[in-house]
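User: Quick sanity check before I run a bigger batch. Here is a single chain. Can you write out its predicted 3D structure?
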Amino acid sequence: MLTIYLSKLQLNGLKEVDSSTYKIITIGVVSFVIGYFIVLVFSKLAKNNNNKCNRYVYNTKVITIFAFCCIIFYLPLFAQSFVELIRGGSFESIRYTNRFESTANTGIYNLISYFIIQPFSSCLELIAPIDFWFGKRDRKLFFTTMILIFIRMISDAGRTPFVNFMIYMVLCYCIVKGNKQKTKQEKRYNRIILSLFLVFALFVILYISISRSSSGLSRQLYFYFAMAPVLLNYWISLPESLSFGLASFNGFIFTVLYFLTNITGTTYPNHFQNVYDLIAATDSTWIPIASGGVTANAYVSLFWFFYNDGGFAGIIIYSLIYGMLVTTVLFKINNLSNIRFIALYLLLMQGLIFSFIRFPFAKAQYCITFIIILILIHKESDVKI
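Assistant: Done. Predicted structure follows.
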């Protein structure tokens, strides 16, 4: 709804959007909220008297080893980018260089990066905050994760890993804040820690944003949060071709088909290939969004995927299911010992926060991260609460 408001302001020459596009976004948001209330009502009606629950754990040593492996993988690119910064380069030039050099990497490099390193790095971004707020505050795990995030930020001038880490820290704090077992002194200490971290985080993000932008930062931020309706308006105006779930859940489907086709030596099914190419086009095609030749890509929002899968019916059904999914996991985190649901909730919230860009489950990296969490955070035993 914020994107609708900002888009309607049409600042900095932002293009006008059809009312039907705003209608699609509104219907999707309302359906998502209805999904929340459906789960809320059923959770109140279902009385569960079973106090038995599962306690979930993770091996910090194993996870720290994975973190070191990720660091080693990113070190060559980090060294290259770091040298460029020392020589007077900017994060904008690093971003521009990496955008074109990434296409020159070998197939095996891209395979390891996309299906192993990136998902594990994403897992570390949320497991470290969980360990900090709910676990033993393992220093090696926390600082190794911070080093990995720093290396990734320098390597490709990306802010996403650090922004995600900041989101997870805040969300974990909000969950801990509601814990009645915490003393006033502990709660005051946690507030101080979070406040200091947020000051540091905002400074880092602001510095990188300024260094990456050759134009005004406020103008850039406005386009970030206002251009999604413009790009959604463009892509839904193309000839309609329903993909019936292939778009929204492309991340899972692509991962399975990728390995199947490479093992068997076959090709992708034609309909899937068409959907995959269309999704790739939303990332690679730069569309004019404002006067002065301003172009943008990718920001089609989750509603384009829903619309592509089922038209207006897809918007309603998929938004409703998405709202029910996020709410179901939300209600599961009342038990703070169930850190698996806390981890899944953090990942779902990250996807929801950035849903004005795309539907997260359309990305293989996000889906693999989802699966890795289920593996790394495993059940210890049944305990009585």
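The first strand starts at residue 52 and ends at 57.

User: Great, the batch can go ahead then.
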